[in-house]
Design goal:
Immunoglobulin-like; alpha+beta; Rossmann fold; eight-stranded mixed beta sheet; about 775 residues; transmembrane helix; single chain; 11 helices; about 40% strand
C-alpha cells in the first residue's frame, strides 16, 4: 500500500513538473519578419454594403532580401482573396486587391505570407451600410447631400477622390449612385472610364453635376453614358435662384429622356437621363452644390427625384441585410443542385455482367461442387459469389461514373447594351471524395468568389479556399476543400464584348408583333419572346438568322401564371398525361427562370423579354489535376426594343412592382403576379415602374386597383412628383376597389415611376393589400 502511495506521489510531482515546464516553454507562433512592413487602406473610407467588392490599397515595404510574397485580404467570415508579388530588397510595392464583403463585418484583415508562413499582418476598420442608399461623390468639389430623404430613407455619402476610383467596375459595386463634379477630361484614365461604364451597365445611377466644369466633365465620360451636352448659359431660375446652362439631348433614341424636377417650373428641361444596360446617367443643368440649392426649401424633394430607390430586399425574404442582386444570384446558384442525370453505363456491359453472374452462380457452381462431392457447400458459395459480383459491379460503376468530379455551370448573359453584355457564371463542383481543389479559368477572369448553393435563406461561412487575383496562369482558386459527395459553388462576374441577340416588339392595339435577330456565332435554342402573358416560341435560331412572329396568350395561361409555366406548360402537361417525369434539362431551365422571375420582391410587369439558351459557355473553371465531367447551360437575355404605334393602355400587371421602403412587421404578399404587403403602423412604400421603352409616357388616365385578403381600412397616399409631397387617396374600408386618379401626370413621373404609401391605422386590422395601377397614354 505504501508503495502505491509512493508511486502516486512521484506521478503527481512529475505531472506538476511537466505542466510547469510546458508553461515556461514559449508557445509556437508564426514567424514575424521585422524587415517587412505593411500599410492597408480600404477605399471609400471603408464604407461597404453586404455582397459587394471593396478595393483595398496595400503597400508592402521590404527592408530585407528579395522575396516572393503572397498577400491575402479578407474578413473573419471570409472569403479570402490573394495575389503574389515580387518584393525586391529595399523596395516598396503598392497594389490594389478587391475584397468581397460577405455579411456586415467591421474589420478587414491583410496578411503577408512567405513560403506559406505568415510574416506580418495589418487590419483596417470597415463601416457597414445596411439600410438606405450609399452615394459616392467623385472629384475634389464638396457636395452636400441630405442625411435622409423625404420619407426617412437614409442617405450615406462619401467622397471619392479620383485616385480612389478603381480601374475595375466591380470595385464600384458598394454604391447605389455616383455623382461626378468638375472633373477635367484627362483626369479619368481609360480603365476608370470603362469601370464607370461597366458599373452603370450593372445597374448604377451616375449623376453629372451642372457646375461650371460640366463641359469638361462630360468630355471625360464614355460617349455611351452621355445623355446631353452643355451649351450656353440659360436664363437664371427664380426658385431656387441659381444659374443654369442649356442642355441639348445627345440623341433622339428612346434611351434618352427629359426629367421633370419637383417644384421647378421651366420651359426647357433641367435634366436629361439616358439608360445604359440596367443603369442610367442623369446630367443636370445647374450646380447641386450651389448655396441657393442647398438652402432651397425643395432641396430634399429634389434629391428624392434624382436618387434611385434602395436596393435592399425587405426583411423576411433572406437572412440578414441583403441586396436584391445578391438575393437573385443566390437563387440562381441554388439551381446548381438540379444536376442533369449523367449517361447510364452501357446496356451491353450490364447484360454481360448479368449473364456471367447467372452462368457462374448456376451451372458452373453446380458442376464444380458436384465434382468435388460438396453440393452442401452451395449455401456458402452462392452468397460469396454474389458478394464478389456485387463488389465487382460497384467497382466498375465507380470507375465509370462514381469517381468523376462533376462541374456544373449556369451562365446568365444580359445582352443589355449595343456592344457589350453582363456575364455572370455560377460553377458548382461536385466531389466524389474529400479533396482540396485548385481551379483554373479557361479565359482571363479578374475576380471570382464563393457562393452558397443553399439559397438566400442561409448564411454559411465562406472561409473555404483562397481566391487568387492576377495569376499569370489563370489560376483562380486554391485549397478549396470539398467533402465527399458534397458541392461547393463559385461565382464570376464580368462585362464581355458580345453583340448576341436583339429583338423588337411592336404593339398596335391588341396586336403584338415581334422580330428577333441572332447576332451571335452560335445556334440558340428555345428562343422565346414575351410581353406580359403574350409569348412567341421561336425555337432554334441559327447565327445571323432573323425571324418574325406574333405574340399571343397561350390557351393554358391563367391569371397569376409563372413565366416558366407560361413557356413550358404544354411540355409539363404532355409528360403528366403519359405519367412520365419531366426531363432534367426542362426542370433546370424552369428552375432558372423561376429564380429570376418567380421569387423575390420585384415583379416583371410588361417589360418585354427575350430569352435564349445554348449548351456552352464563354468562360469555365476546370479542376487542375482531376478529371471532370463538364455540364454547361447558358441563358441569354437579349435586348428588346418596345415600339408603340398608337395610344397604349397598360393593363393589370403592366408595371414592374417593387418595395422601396418597409419597416416593422411589414411582410411581402403574393397573389398570382400581384405584389402586396401586409401594412403595419409604420408606412410602407411600394414603387411601380413602367417598362423601359415607355418611360416618358404622357398619361391621360390612371386607375389604382386595390385588393385585400379581408376588409382593410388604412392610410393610402400617392406621391405627387410636381410638388414633392404625398396626396391622400380617400377610401372607405374595402376588399376590392378601383380608384380613378385625377391629374395622372402628377403621379407618374417623367422617369415612369408611381410611388404608393400604405399605413395601417389599427394593428389588429392585419391583412395583405395588393396594388395594381393601370395607365393609358401616349409617347411624345
Amino acid at each position: 500500500m505504501r508503495g502505491l502511495r509512493a508511486w502516486a506521489g512521484w506521478l503527481i510531482l512529475l505531472g506538476v513538473f511537466c505542466i510547469g515546464f510546458g508553461t515556461w516553454l514559449p508557445l509556437p507562433v508564426a514567424a514575424q519578419a521585422s524587415d517587412i512592413t505593411l500599410v492597408v487602406r480600404p477605399a471609400f473610407q471603408g464604407m461597404v454594403r453586404p455582397g459587394v467588392w471593396l478595393p483595398v490599397t496595400v503597400e508592402v515595404t521590404n527592408n530585407g532580401v528579395d522575396r516572393t510574397a503572397e498577400i491575402v485580404v479578407g474578413t473573419a467570415n471570409g472569403p479570402f482573396q490573394s495575389t503574389f508579388v515580387e518584393l525586391p530588397g529595399g523596395g516598396r510595392k503598392g497594389l490594389i486587391l478587391y475584397a468581397f464583403i460577405y455579411g456586415s463585418p467591421r474589420q478587414l484583415g491583410v496578411r503577408v505570407l512567405i513560403d506559406g508562413t505568415e510574416v506580418t499582418t495589418a487590419s483596417a476598420r470597415l463601416q457597414p451600410v445596411t439600410e438606405g442608399l450609399l452615394v459616392g461623390v467623385i472629384g475634389e468639389r464638396e457636395l452636400r447631400l441630405p442625411a435622409q430623404l423625404t420619407d426617412g430613407i437614409k442617405v450615406t455619402s462619401v467622397p471619392v477622390p479620383l485616385a480612389d476610383l478603381p480601374p475595375e467596375s466591380l470595385g464600384l459595386s458598394p454604391f447605389d449612385a455616383l455623382i461626378i463634379a468638375d472633373v477635367a477630361a484627362n483626369e479619368i484614365t481609360p480603365d476608370q472610364q470603362r469601370a464607370l461604364q461597366g458599373w452603370v451597365q450593372r445597374g448604377g445611377t451616375l449623376l453629372v453635376n451642372g457646375d461650371v466644369g460640366i463641359a469638361r466633365t462630360l468630355s471625360s465620360l464614355p460617349r455611351e453614358l452621355i445623355p446631353a451636352t452643355a451649351g450656353a448659359l440659360a436664363a437664371p431660375l427664380t426658385d431656387p435662384s441659381v444659374t443654369s446652362v442649356t442642355l441639348t439631348p445627345s440623341a433622339s433614341a428612346p434611351e434618352v429622356y427629359p426629367i421633370t424636377l419637383p417644384l421647378i417650373s421651366t420651359p426647357l428641361p433641367l435634366a436629361y437621363g439616358k439608360r445604359f444596360g440596367n443603369g442610367q446617367t442623369v446630367v443636370l443643368a445647374f450646380d447641386l452644390a450651389a448655396p441657393e440649392v442647398v438652402n432651397w426649401s425643395g432641396w430634399r424633394e429634389l434629391w428624392q427625384a434624382l436618387l434611385p430607390p434602395p436596393s435592399f430586399i425587405p426583411s423576411g425574404l433572406g437572412f440578414g441585410a441583403k441586396l436584391y442582386s445578391t438575393y437573385v444570384e443566390e437563387n440562381l446558384a441554388s439551381a446548381l443542385t438540379t444536376l442533369p442525370a449523367l449517361d447510364l453505363p452501357s446496356l451491353n456491359l450490364i447484360g454481360i455482367l448479368l449473364a456471367c453472374y447467372l452462368v457462374v452462380v448456376g451451372p458452373v457452381t453446380y458442376l464444380v461442387l458436384r465434382r468435388l462431392d460438396r453440393l452442401a457447400w452451395g449455401w456458402v458459395v452462392v452468397p460469396v459469389l454474389t458478394g464478389i459480383f456485387a463488389a465487382g459491379a460497384y467497382g466498375i460503376g465507380y470507375d465509370l461514373r462514381g469517381g468523376e468530379v462533376i462541374v456544373s455551370q449556369i451562365t446568365l448573359i444580359d445582352a443589355n447594351a449595343p456592344t457589350s453584355a453582363h456575364e455572370r457564371s455560377f460553377i458548382g463542383i461536385f466531389s466524389p471524395d474529400r479533396y482540396a481543389y485548385r481551379l483554373q479559368a479557361t479565359e482571363s477572369v479578374t475576380m471570382v468568389r464563393p457562393v452558397s448553393v443553399q439559397g438566400p435563406w442561409s448564411s454559411p461561412p465562406l472561409t473555404n479556399g483562397t481566391y487568387v487575383q492576377g495569376s499569370d496562369d489563370n489560376l483562380v482558386v486554391e485549397n478549396l476543400e470539398i467533402s465527399q459527395w458534397s458541392m461547393q459553388a463559385i461565382a464570376s462576374d464580368r462585362v464581355i464584348s458580345a453583340p448576341l441577340i436583339t429583338a423588337q416588339i411592336t404593339v398596335n392595339g391588341d396586336t403584338v408583333q415581334g422580330e428577333v435577330t441572332n447576332r451571335s456565332e452560335r445556334t440558340l435554342e428555345d428562343v422565346v419572346l414575351a410581353y406580359g402573358e403574350q409569348i412567341a416560341l421561336i425555337n432554334a435560331l441559327a447565327p445571323g438568322e432573323q425571324r418574325s412572329a406574333t405574340l399571343e396568350r397561350p390557351s393554358h395561361a391563367f391569371d397569376g401564371i409563372s413565366l416558366s409555366y407560361l413557356i413550358y406548360g404544354p411540355q409539363f402537361e404532355a409528360m403528366s398525361r403519359v405519367a412520365q417525369p419531366v426531363s432534367p434539362t426542362l426542370q433546370l431551365r424552369s428552375r432558372i427562370i423561376d429564380s429570376l422571375y418567380g421569387y423575390g420582391s420585384i415583379t416583371r410587369g410588361a417589360q418585354p423579354l427575350l430569352l435564349a439558351w445554348y449548351q456552352d459557355t464563354e468562360t469555365s473553371l476546370i479542376p487542375v489535376d482531376r478529371r471532370a465531367t463538364m455540364q454547361h447551360l447558358t441563358l441569354v437575355r437579349g435586348a428588346v426594343r418596345l415600339q408603340v404605334t398608337d395610344e397604349i393602355k397598360l393593363n393589370s400587371n403592366g408595371f414592374i412592382g417593387s418595395f422601396e421602403q418597409t419597416a416593422g412587421t411589414n411582410s411581402p404578399c403574393y397573389n398570382g403576379n400581384l405584389l402586396g404587403i401586409a401594412p403595419d403602423l409604420q408606412p410602407t412604400i411600394m414603387r411601380f415602374t413602367l417598362p423601359a421603352d415607355l418611360i416618358g409616357l404622357q398619361p391621360s388616365a390612371l386607375v389604382l386597383n386595390l385588393r385585400s385578403d379581408s376588409f382593410w381600412s388604412g392610410e393610402i397616399e400617392l406621391y405627387d412628383w410636381t410638388t414633392g409631397s404625398w396626396t391622400p387617396i380617400l377610401t372607405d374600408a374595402f376588399q376590392s376597389v378601383a380608384l380613378d386618379i385625377p391629374q395622372p401626370d402628377h403621379f407618374l413621373s417623367s422617369q415612369g415611376v408611381i410611388r404608393l404609401r400604405l399605413k395601417n391605422r389599427d394593428f389588429q386590422n392585419f391583412t395583405c393589400v395588393y396594388a395594381d395601377p393601370v395607365v393609358r397614354g401616349r409617347l411624345p
